[in-house]
Design brief:
By secondary structure, the protein is mainly alpha-helical. The chain has 23 helices and two strands. Strands 1-2 form a two-stranded antiparallel sheet.
Length: 462
Amino acid sequence: MKTIALKFGAAAMALLLMAGSVNAQQKKYLNDPKYGADSAAREACAMHMSLYNEFYKQKNYKDALNDWRHVYQNCPAASKNTFIRGASIYKNLINAEKDAAKKQALIDTLMMIYDQRIVYFKQEGAVLANKGSDLYNYRGKDVAGDVYQMLKKSCELQKQETSGGITTIMMQAAVDEFKAEKIDGAEVIAAYQLSMETIDLAIADNQKIANGGDAKKVTAAQKELENLATDQKNVEALFSESGAATCDALVAIFGAKYDANKDDVDWLKKITKLLDKSECTTDPLFAKASEALYALEPSAEAARNLARLFLGKQELQKAASYYSKACDLQEDNIEKSKYYYEWSQVVFVQKNFPKVRELANLALKANPENGKAYLAIGKAYAADAQNIGEEQVEHNAAYWAAVDKFNKAKAVDKSCEAEANDLISTYKKHFPNKEEAFMYGIQEGSTVKVVGWINENTIARF
């Protein structure tokens, strides 16, 4: 009785709404062929549309279904909401359905709704994004090939308007297909490139909106930027772990294209980034592409690639020179910090320990949470400890200062925790001897000045 009363109430409300606004609405649907072939069909369409919308608003999707079907079957072009709300109705029905066969039939209908929406209202890129993500959500790896093609086309059409989450699903589908041996590594690499290009475009577009003045749009853009940042991490991880990003595969694919593209700055940027990501920097292709890129467009990234190239060849002076250029050109502080840290490691090999600290401090100035920079300083102190001061206790006091830096590293950067703990365990063994320290007036908890170029205060502990 309760359900019947609810249905009657919704129907009565719809009829009252129609009756109360019949004059205002007449021209909107009675003369519009999208609502049906004649006035009777149009009246019926408008009535069923009003009925299903009332049930929809109440989240009564089961009772909305029959009236929605009438609209979908008889006047689909009347409103885009027929397809938007229809997809929502069916997704709710799918999630509630326990019978496996019935669930699959409902999924088939949902896919058909997306197809028909494209027929009547276009927006193929946006609709394919919804269709592909829902299809993967409901059927997973079994339909990875179809999902990949849908989302690939969606990204190509939507470009900067691609929503967060889509590239992650596309990349996952591509990896699924690769592992099932249905596509080759070249296609996975192409999927990765498309994903990263799409994310870059979307980030730039949303950043522009976020910098605007419309508060509503700014909030939405900021949220989307968070989603896109997550996408970027997911896509990188999927690509790195796919097994497709081997040096041999990358070199085979891009090596054959090098001569035709060696004057194309964008192409050179893509290939050097991919080779770097896949740790293929020792291959001659990386050297050729990096030098060609730097000649065409001196940039931070190109200078860093050349620095790493010369480092691999043990040409340390050239490596340091290019790191210097890279740090000067880099505007992004996170990347700049990374470059200064890498440069400090070149200088460490040259045993210029004060310079290691100088560069590591520049890394920390750019990014105070770069734990590796603190590790670099600590290692420099430990490596030069026996040259600090004149007495053994002064030499060994440098290890206190070194451990201070290792503790700081894991405090600011959790990713450094394991290495920092290993280093602390190693160098604690070299702390000054308690009895020897006492002879110099040093007691547990005393403030001690570490002399020499270190020139820092530390706390005595044994």
